User: What shape does this take?
Amino acid sequence: MHDSSFSVRAAKIRRDNARFIAAGTAGSITYTLASLLMHPVETVRARIQADAHNFITLRAMCRTMNSKEGLMSYWRGASVTGVCASAGHFVYFFTYDKLKTTLNQKHNLSIERASFIASISAMWCQTFLANPLDLVKTRMQLGVRYANFIQGLKKIARSEGASPFLATYRAKLVFDAIQVGSTWSLYESLRSSIRRWCLKPDGQIDHKRYVMGSAATFFIASIVTTVIAIPFSTLMTRVQLEGIPFFVALRSLLRNEGASSLRKGWSARVILTLFYATIPMPIYEGIKLRLYSAYNLH
Assistant: This one.
């Protein structure tokens, strides 16, 4: 009897771990492709937000980059983006799914609270892994030339020490807690209703409805939280460029450029939000469901 119950628990643990790996794999594939596709827009956004002297529009920055540096300037740091996104998003979605399930099922937290805690914790794990590379990527997007991300890490460490890495870690922790935690807790609270809408009479999930519903709920959650987080995007760029603490960057920005500078790059940010809020999430859910079906993980 004891051996039988142990075998059942072991099988459940293996099945749950396979589900978490499937979620991580789906997230890694989806968001690596999405990040590479939107890298040029991210580069333009970073250039606009880094300019301390002018309030440049998206179109004007594109014209400047085209005339002075050519089309390849949009793809600076793209190799680092690929490495960051593939490893970072696997860690994120694996951790998020595992922690959310544990908190909801074993500790009886509501899906909203479990999602909020899991999303922030997962993003902090991703930040710990990817933040040094993200710093190098941003410097490359802004025109600093490194042969590769390893050379970039070495040069920053030699010339500036650990301070820029620590400054960006602290800033990212604040940014992640505000945007990511709010997005995923709102998304999961809405998605619980979507799941009921997607159930067929036989109790199975209608995959088409589920993917469409997931896309709609994630779009709503992303739009709401991005409006709140836009000012922090400019601050993050300045912290990564100058390697200064978050609140020092905020004081400098407000004193020298005024509160309106916090809106720099908003148009690029809106493009990114509209893309990430509509395209990747249904693809992620679709890949995850196919992996569940392929390996009988439902």
Q: What stands out?
A: DSSP finds eleven helices and no strands in the chain. The mean pLDDT is 86. Residues 91 and 126 are 6 Å apart (CA to CA).
